[in-house]
């Protein structure tokens, strides 16, 4: 079966997987979606004995149908190697009755590595397949993790450049240091004076600027994206949910066919959408629990059917979730309309012009697999503390939100279904907030002294990614106002 891709807003159809990966965003501002969601060729029992890499091939071949077996296996082999500090790539840890799917064993200690370690190989393979003659400029907005993971993936990859925008004062100190110390002659990092939504909207605006696109082409450049709006980001994320279920089965934690719930700390909606795709593939997932922090726009949406971004933007200790415009939700909207591009475009246009939209009762009914919950800052910290006190297991602030929401969900519903919680970052990425949650002691001012203290209390070795930035040189110092993002891109590219 050869799947093609189309825009959620109807402007492009019949696009191959490799073309969709190269473009990133459709020309009408929509997101690329497969013409149908495929089913796994193998049973979960057959997948239970496979490695992460073998599972990745079984999932990815279903979506990336214009990649040859040789091309796809090459991309997988190059991506999931010794960059990860564990052979299992995505281990499951059982703690306090839940299964924490650790997605932070890659080179930047966050779940974004799971997809961004393979995207550069997808991109360069796609460029060859489509005889692309222009230098690919990866343009990305980050709420903290995507930027570093994308730069680590694309650093010094021939034929590519990468420009990352992040909100100044809107990420953790470790996240910022990881970005501003990034090596690579083709990497650029810019702090914007605004929040993540400003950065994301600015990047989308640049993508939609046809005149600027033509000017870039004249200078030998073409844009693409490393955000989860790129289908090449989403497909690799489906893999770890399939692998998680197969691992539970292999470890005899569940019976074949037994349903599980999945709880995901959610910002841009890509990670939980990947779990939904895994369910459509045939993974027995019952409920998808969407966990929000104080920026609870998604929680409100699942409660009421109204998406309203007109609210205060709150800076929290889980900054990767400090998002009010969840881009990937557009893909779920599209599916819930029965793939009606016109209706999807209308809703997205309404969000852009009026700041809100409301789905129909029929659309809401089609989203019944999802339920929302949110955790305040205090509830997040309490969940981290409780898990540590009871088990000695330390989680980061985003996983803390998911853990708190999972406990609320169980209490409110009485649903005791075995649950996988997506653990999206190493606690070392947010060491100060984590230490404030688990310790009553006054913490030192120095960030690395806090990191050393976390190592002492957790017994977990400090990751290489953190040790590397301890004394690393600051290489990127660019800042700009939101309205100057396009001008800054032009300057970086020498246009």
What would you note in describing this structure?
With 495 residues, the chain is an alpha/beta fold. The chain has helices at 17-23, 44-47, 52-63, 69-79, 113-116, 119-129, 146-154, 173-180, 196-208, 210-218, 231-250, 270-281, 297-304, 329-336, 341-354, 361-365, 377-391, 397-413, 431-438, 447-458, 464-469, 485-493; strands at residues 5-7, 32-34, 92-95, 98-102, 135-141, 160-167, 187-193, 221-224, 260-265, 285-292, 306-308, 356-358, 370-374, 419-423, 478-481. The strands form four sheets. The chain has a six-stranded mixed beta sheet with strand order 3-4-14-9-10-13, sandwiched between helices. The protein starts with a strand and ends with a helix.
């Amino acid at each position: 079966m050869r799947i093609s891709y189309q825009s959620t807003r109807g402007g492009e159809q019949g696009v191959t997987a490799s073309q969709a990966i190269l473009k990133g965003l459709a020309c009408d501002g929509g997101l690329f979606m497969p013409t149908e969601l495929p089913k796994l060729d193998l049973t979960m029992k057959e997948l239970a004995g496979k490695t992460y890499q073998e599972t990745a091939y079984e999932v990815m071949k279903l979506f990336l149908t214009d990649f040859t077996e040789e091309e796809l296996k090459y991309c997988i082999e190059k991506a999931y190697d010794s960059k990860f500090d564990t052979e299992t790539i995505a281990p499951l840890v059982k703690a306090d009755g839940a299964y924490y799917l650790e997605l932070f064993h890659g080179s930047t200690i966050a779940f974004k590595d799971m997809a961004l370690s393979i995207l550069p190989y997808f991109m360069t393979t796609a460029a060859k397949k489509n005889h692309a003659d222009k230098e690919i400029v990866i343009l990305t907005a980050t709420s903290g993790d995507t930027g570093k993971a994308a730069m680590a993936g694309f650093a010094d990859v021939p034929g590519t450049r990468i420009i990352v925008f992040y909100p100044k004062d809107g990420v953790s100190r470790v996240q910022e240091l990881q970005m501003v110390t990034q090596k690579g002659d083709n990497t650029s990092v810019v702090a914007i004076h605004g929040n993540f939504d400003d950065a994301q909207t600015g990047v989308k605006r640049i993508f939609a600027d046809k005149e600027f696109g033509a000017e870039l082409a004249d200078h030998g450049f073409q844009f693409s994206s490393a955000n989860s709006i790129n289908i090449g980001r989403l497909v690799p994320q489906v893999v770890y949910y399939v692998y998680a279920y197969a691992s539970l089965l292999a470890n005899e934690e569940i019976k074949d066919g037994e349903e599980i719930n999945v709880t995901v700390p959610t910002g841009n909606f890509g990670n939980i959408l990947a779990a939904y795709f895994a369910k459509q593939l045939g993974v027995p997932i019952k409920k998808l629990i969407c966990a929000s922090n104080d920026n609870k726009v998604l929680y409100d949406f699942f409660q009421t059917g109204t998406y309203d971004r007109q609210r205060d933007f709150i800076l929290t200790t889980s900054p990767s979730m400090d998002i009010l415009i969840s881009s990937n939700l557009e893909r779920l909207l599209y599916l819930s309309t029965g793939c009606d591009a016109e209706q999807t475009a209308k809703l997205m246009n309404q969000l852009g012009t009026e700041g809100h939209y409301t789905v129909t009762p029929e659309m809401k009914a089609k989203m019944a697999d999802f339920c929302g919950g949110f955790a305040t800052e205090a509830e997040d910290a309490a969940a981290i503390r409780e898990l540590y006190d009871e088990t000695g297991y330390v989680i980061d602030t985003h996983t803390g939100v998911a853990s708190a929401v999972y406990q609320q969900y169980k209490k409110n519903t009485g649903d005791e279904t075995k649950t996988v919680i997506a653990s999206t970052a190493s606690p070392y990425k947010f060491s100060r907030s984590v230490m404030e949650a688990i310790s009553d002691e006054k913490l030192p001012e120095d960030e690395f002294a806090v990191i050393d203290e976390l190592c002492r209390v957790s017994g977990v070795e400090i990751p290489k990614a953190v040790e590397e930035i301890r004394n690393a040189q600051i290489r990127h110092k660019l800042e700009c106002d939101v309205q100057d993002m396009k001008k800054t891109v032009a300057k970086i590219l020498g246009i």
